[in-house]
Specification:
The protein is α/β, with parallel strands linked by helices and 211 residues long. It has helices spanning 22-32, 62-70, 89-97, 108-118, 132-142, 147-161, 176-191, 200-209; strands spanning 11-15, 36-38, 42-43, 58-59, 74-80, 83-88, 101-104, 122-128, 169-172. It has a single domain, classed as P-loop containing nucleotide triphosphate hydrolases (Rossmann fold, 3-Layer(aba) Sandwich). The chain binds guanosine-5'-monophosphate (5GP). Guanosine-5'-monophosphate binds next to strand 5, strand 6 and helix 4. Guanosine-5'-monophosphate (5GP) is lined by residues 18, 41, 45, 76, 78, 80-81, 85-87, 105-107, 109-110.
Length: 211
């Protein structure tokens, strides 16, 4: 017997309040680990400068979003900051079956829905900012959102952070490299979980047969 042991991919959810560094961590992880793909959400929010349709989000009109939701094409969907966001189901199942891991940059509402639907495939990581001051500095530093949006996000951050206890792992993002290593460590351990290595019994059979 040769080759890799067949495995089922996992769903890695990374949530945090806006400004805690989640998007930076997610992008870096995707660059470094070819076994991980990003779940690209559909959203009704307008495209920001620098964003690409189909890469950052699938930008859709509210009517289309409703149609996708009504026909059961989302694994989860929620309203965040007045806009609708949803995770298309089909690409996720294809990736998991092919043994690839899927990274989700979604909020606590979506995470709760995934936990109800796919608890066994799910690994939940919550990223906290090191302090309120740092969170505010990072939100202001972005300069791409109007002041009103920044204020709203500061207020919402407190609410989002109240959900930390619903996650399996919690990382305080003091330093990007350190946080990234911590997420990578979680991923490495979760990949070794026996239940995800669905080819193990065949592999061990082969080992015993060859003994
Ligand atoms: P933004 O508009 O700044 O890209 O994202 C706003 C918030 O929506 C973030 O907290 C992000 O994690 C969340 N979000 C993005 N896509 C989805 C999704 O498909 N489902 C859910 N529930 N939340 C999402």
């Amino acid at each position: 017997m040769s080759g890799n042991i067949k495995r089922r991919g996992l769903m890695l959810v990374v949530s945090s309040p806006s400004g805690a560094g989640k998007t930076t961590i997610a992008r870096a992880l995707l660059e470094r680990d070819p076994g991980v793909i990003l779940s690209v959400s559909a959203t009704t929010r307008p495209k920001r400068p620098g964003e690409t349709d189909g890469r950052d989000y699938i930008f859709v009109a509210p009517r289309i979003f409703e149609e996708l939701a009504a026909t059961g094409q989302f694994l989860e969907h929620a309203k965040v900051f007045g806009h609708r966001y949803g995770t298309p189901a089909a690409p996720v199942e294809t990736a998991l079956e092919a043994g690839r891991d899927v990274l989700f940059d979604i909020d606590w509402q979506g995470t709760q829905q995934l936990a109800e639907k796919a608890r066994d495939d799910l690994v939940r990581v919550f990223i906290l900012p090191p302090s309120t001051e740092e969170l505010e500095r990072r939100l202001k530093g972005r300069a791409r959102d109007p002041d009103e949006v920044v204020r709203e996000r500061m207020a919402k951050a407190a609410d989002e952070m109240s959900h930390w206890a619903e996650y399996d792992y919690v990382i305080v993002n003091r330093d990007l490299e350190a946080s990234l290593s911590q997420v990578a460590a979680v991923l490495a351990a979760e990949r070794l979980k026996r239940e995800r290595q669905i080819g193990l019994s065949d592999f061990v059979e082969g080992l015993r047969g060859g003994a």
